[in-house]
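Whiteboard transcription, Tuesday session. T.W. wrote the structure tokens on the left side:
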């Protein structure tokens, strides 16, 4: 069970190839192609969100894939946090 005061961010939340119904929570323009758990973790650390990695977790809509998730501090809306993480990953990727 997750802690109170934490947001759950899945790689699927930032994945450009997914639909909104499939789990993406930010616009396609802001989203990423195939985000990795380690990228999410590094970006969250850079943003001082105190990420906790849960690599063995499976996204409910794709329960057959083990994508993992991160728990970050709940300082603002989940979509805002997701946009900041995606922007940081894009900068790290060089784009």
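and on the right, the sequence the group agreed on:
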């Amino acid at each position: 069970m997750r802690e109170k005061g934490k947001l759950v961010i899945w790689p699927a939340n930032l994945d450009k190839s997914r639909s909104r119904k499939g789990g993406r929570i930010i616009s396609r323009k802001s989203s990423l192609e195939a985000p990795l758990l380690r990228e999410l973790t590094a970006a969250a650390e850079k943003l001082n969100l105190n990420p906790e990695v849960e690599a063995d977790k499976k996204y409910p809509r794709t329960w057959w894939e083990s994508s993992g998730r991160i728990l970050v501090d709940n300082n603002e809306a989940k979509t805002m946090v997701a946009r900041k993480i995606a922007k940081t990953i894009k900068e790290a990727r060089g784009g």
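Someone added at the bottom: The chain has a mean pLDDT of 92.
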